[in-house]
Specification:
The complex is a heterodimer. Chain A contains 2 helices and 4 strands. Chain A is of the alpha+beta class. Chain A has one domain (4-71): Alpha-Beta Plaits. Chain B has a single domain, classed as Alpha-Beta Plaits, CATH 3.30.70. In chain B, strand 2 (33-39) and strand 3 (44-49) form a beta hairpin. Chain B is an alpha+beta fold. Chain B is globular. Helix content of chain B is 34%, strand content 37%. Chain B contains 2 helices and 4 strands; from the N terminus they run E-H-E-E-H-E. Chain B has a 4-stranded antiparallel β-sheet with strand order 2-3-1-4, with helices on one face. The chains are: A alpha+beta, B alpha+beta. Chain B: Binds and deliver cytosolic copper to the copper ATPase proteins. May be important in cellular antioxidant defense. Chain B: Homodimer. Interacts with ATP7B. Interacts with ATP7A. Interacts (via dimer form) with SLC31A1 (via C-terminal domain); this interaction improves ATOX1 stability and controls intracellular Cu(I) levels. Chain B: Keywords: Chaperone, Copper, Copper transport, Ion transport, Metal-binding, Transport.
C-alpha cells in the first residue's frame, strides 16, 4: 500500500539535541517509518510511514520519550 | 522496595524534563515508582519503588537517552 504522511505537534523540544534524538530514536521503536523530519522552530514532526506504523503509535512513542506530541487536526 | 541508580547521557535541561515527565507519567500509572530524582549535572537518575529492574530499564530506554544501570540496593 502507499506510504502515508502525518505532521505531529511536538511540545517540549528546546534544543537541536532533542530534534536529533527524536529523528534517531523513533524509527527504532516504530516499525514502518520511512522518513521523519523534526522542526525545532515549528515544534513539529513530519513523518512518512507505512503499516504497521500508525499516527497513534507515533504519538505514543514520542510521548514515551517525554515530549508532548499531538495530532494536528 | 528497591533503589535503582542509572547513569544517563542527559545533555541539556530538556533531557532532564523528558526523564522527569516520563517517570511522573508512569508513577501516576501505578507501575510501582514511589519516588525518583534526576540529576542533570551528575547525569544520574535514581528511582525508588517496587517496580522491577526490567520494567524501569525499559521505561527509561524509551526516552531515547542512553542509560546504564549503576546499581540496585534493596531497601529493608
Amino acid at each position: 500500500d502507499l506510504p502515508d504522511e502525518v505532521t505531529l505537534n511536538v511540545g517540549g523540544m528546546t534544543c537541536q539535541t532533542c530534534v536529533d534524538k527524536i529523528e534517531k530514536h523513533i524509527p527504532t521503536v516504530v516499525e514502518g517509518v520511512f522518513k521523519i523530519k523534526v522542526s525545532l522552530e515549528e515544534g513539529t514532526a513530519f513523518v512518512v510511514f507505512k503499516s504497521p506504523a500508525t499516527p497513534e503509535q507515533l504519538v505514543d512513542a514520542i510521548d514515551d520519550m517525554g515530549f508532548d506530541p499531538s495530532l494536528r487536526r | 522496595m528497591n533503589v535503582y541508580t542509572f547513569s544517563a547521557e542527559m545533555t541539556c535541561g530538556s533531557c532532564e524534563n523528558c526523564v522527569k515527565k516520563v517517570l511522573e507519567k508512569n508513577q501516576q500509572k501505578g507501575v510501582g515508582i514511589q519516588s525518583f530524582s534526576v540529576d542533570l549535572k551528575g547525569k544520574k537518575v535514581t528511582v525508588t519503588g517496587t517496580i522491577s529492574q526490567a520494567e524501569i530499564t525499559e521505561i527509561l530506554n524509551k526516552t531515547g537517552i542512553t542509560m546504564s544501570l549503576d546499581g540496585v540496593t534493596l531497601l529493608a
